[in-house]
Related to nucleotide binding protein (NBP 2)
Amino acid sequence: MAASPSTPGAATAGVSASASHLGADPSIVRRLSQVRNIILVLSGKGGVGKSSVSAQLALSLSSTPITDDDGPTTGPSSSSSPSSSSPTPSSTPRTPRVGILDIDLTGPSIPRMLGLDGQTVKQSSDGWVPVYTDASQSLAVMSVGFLLRSKNDSVVWRGPKKNAMIKQFLGDVRWGPLDYLVIDTPPGTSDEHISILEYLRTFQPSAVMVTTPQAVSLADNLRSLDFTRKTNLPLLGLIENMSGYVCPHCEECTNVWGKGGGEALAQRERIHFLGRIPIDPGLVRVLDDAKEEAQAKVQTQNGSDASAAAEIINQPLDAHETAATSSAPASAAAAAPAPASAPVPASAAAAAPSASAAASSTGQHDDSATPAGTILSRTTIQRYRDSQTFPIFQKITDQIRDLARQHRNSSAAGQ
Ligand SMILES: Nc1ncnc2c1ncn2[C@@H]1O[C@H](COP(=O)(O)OP(=O)(O)OP(=O)(O)O)[C@@H](O)[C@H]1O
Ligand SMILES: [Mg+2]
């Protein structure tokens, strides 16, 4: 069913769902017509912080209230239940709804960075239910990492299977109305980039590029820049990540990998420079040790042993959520839901039965099912807010929000 303008959130992403998606896949049109802004995070080089930036951007966007000028015209208000919709636009600030899609199929790191390792995707009558970071459902997460039996499983896919998986992430996931969908991509310009841009062609996506100050990263990003130009993907701006280390004792900044290369590249190529993020050991702890830290915290609080701590972490926050997440992550991992045609990787094939098998083993969800937030992800979010990087990234997020709105408005004007 293609979304009509009367569908909640239909007039989103700067497009009219009925007229502007000719040739697009109907299942994707149905889902993404409810998404207001789609932002890809790109870099020509690996390991420069694309996933960290994606995670931070999603967390920062979801933690700053917006008005409906910035959000779905018919989306939920912060005072109402997350699954309800308000029929009229409102200028009252509300919590934005954000999705993060990890299309790094061979190296998914978003689940770990958000403290969601071991969580699984559930099946509902309306498609896959993404994993939510907390009970308010303001941040929805989807990654192939949730479909693997073990986080150490390798994923070996050829191009067509990757293409099919990405299509499912866009068309089969019950994203609901979103203000922002942040897409974390693999390094370079790969099959995944080509697929996602093809599927998003009519949805006016934009991109943010990440570099580190080293010459090699800057050179690799020139190739990515060329890719965005050839594919007409608007670039909102460039972030220089891991830009110097500020000593916490003397506050002197050591430019470990040089400084200013990103800004110079941005100036030369006439790209907006979004800002610099220093090397922050606190951020590494948040992103890399999320689960372990949360486990330790719960263990300390409860004075119990490690297994008891893990049990508490995996419990839903309250009874309301218990009904919706009856399967514990450990057992659900052996039953990762997948629609019948799901292109599962070799290593995950045994762990991903058909939709009906998954439904019978995990309990099929009705459309109002509310996946649990966990103590673990709440801890991650709090620790991220406490990090040195958070205020810096807030400024970057403010710019991205404004630029995305300008892009959306100019796309709508050009329709
Ligand atoms: N500003 C920062 N300060 C300190 N550590 C950082 C910073 N940004 C990223 N990192 C760390 O650097 C490592 C690589 O970051 P990340 O995984 O985000 O890069 P990536 O570009 O997504 O990598 P890949 O190309 O493999 O997907 C991670 O361990 C991350 O925690
Ligand atoms: Mg990554």
